[in-house]
User: What shape does this take?
Amino acid sequence: MSQSDYDYLCEFLKERSGLALAPDKEYLVDNRLLPVARRHGRKTVAELIQMLKAPDAGHLKVEVTEAMMNNESYFFRDRVPFERLADTVLPELLRTRALRKKIRIWCAAASTGQEPYSVAMQLDQRPELAGWRVEIVATDISGDAIERAKSGLYSQFEVQRGLPIQMLMQHFEEVAGQWRIAERLRQRVEFQTANLLTDFSWLGQFDVVFLRNVLIYFDRDTKLNVLARVREVLAPDGYLLLGAAETMVGLGDLFKMVPETRALYRPHVAQRKPELVVVPGGARVA
Assistant: This one.
């Protein structure tokens, strides 16, 4: 693959998915795109890139983009965000949403569904949510990943990654050597294909947004763009959860970290400037 081919692919991926490839990632490109090239009767990634430049390469563009995405996921990944959901986020939402009894949660970049199903299992163990309407929306750029997630079917290896045995027995059923999550939990999650680089306001407003392990693939400008639009769909008193390796350092003041936590943020609400109110005998600040 020539330098011009690599530069073309980098620009293509950044425009379509936000993925910012470093100059030394040719090995990653070969590893993920060579199987795609062979499926299309091509021997090299360079030949595949030439196909990608054709005017009628619409389906191939989707296939290449999805092949380059990192869809690795597992149940209760990193643990800490789920602990914060249990001990900080849910108690606060139970208090502030007590009148309407409704909570909306968005799992962005949900991959093959382990994250939203982990959230669903966690909520299933909260008896105080009885009578509440809890909506979990899960999105990903990959249509193939979303279809897998909808099926709720996982291999023995996948359920062994992060899922306690008691939860496996409580929330899954064995199906021909694989494990399918319970129907009641599958019905709790609405799966949609969505690209974080494009408008997602149609999803509505949320009380909680999981945006984990995706910002690390974007450059700074793309991160700021995505975060600004996430803030627009997050309730002013809502919560944003990032991945363990992600931070808001250097990304402005759109969000502020919840004290004494890790990767848990709330929208930063600018303080209203004091108004000078003139009253008889002088002035006071309101």
In short: The CA atoms of residues 6 and 26 lie 8 Å apart. Confidence is low (pLDDT under 50) at residues 271-279, 281-286. The two ends are 66 Å apart (CA to CA).
